[in-house]
Amino acid sequence: MGRPREFEVDKAIEKATALFWRNGYDGTLLSDLTKKIGITPPSFYFAFGSKEGLFKRVIERYFAEQGETLEAACRELTARAVASRFLYGHADMFTDRSHAPGCLTMNSALPCAEGDPLRVWLAGLRERVRVRLRDRFAYAKDAGDLPGDADPDALARFVTITNWGMAVEAQSGASRKQLHQVVTLALATWPQAEGAGE
Question: Could you read off the pLDDT of 162-178 as tens digits, one per residue?
Fold first, then answer.
């Protein structure tokens, strides 16, 4: 009996992801989830514990997938190429018509009140992305790929702020072409070590 239930839970997480992505955490009601998944409230609580429990499982899966995208970008040969792959890749994802526009985590985090535990938790997940980029840019600086006065922490923040800003813009209706234009402008300011290629 375990294997079929695991399969159903997996499908339930996929269906819940679509709801949270479109409506955000606060805008998704328990009744929306049980109806979409096709289970009763008691079965829902047995499987996930709470709406927050299901949401965290959705986000953990989402961040695992996004982590693969981040690591692929970090394997690029130069810091600029890392930023380029990361930003263009997310611009494409934010405007992918197979799901609601924008970023699953940003769509859910922004409506939350300041100090809300979920908002704090989501901010911590985003911070892990920034730290990974900072470490990659610090490596690039040590390798001579960035100028000696480059600030890896500031560069990582620049990339992540650009990224999350694009997520909000996509949610508001910005097109892929418009987001690509933003990335092009952002990369035009990228610091380049003397003699370093792209």
Answer: 999 999 999 999 999 99
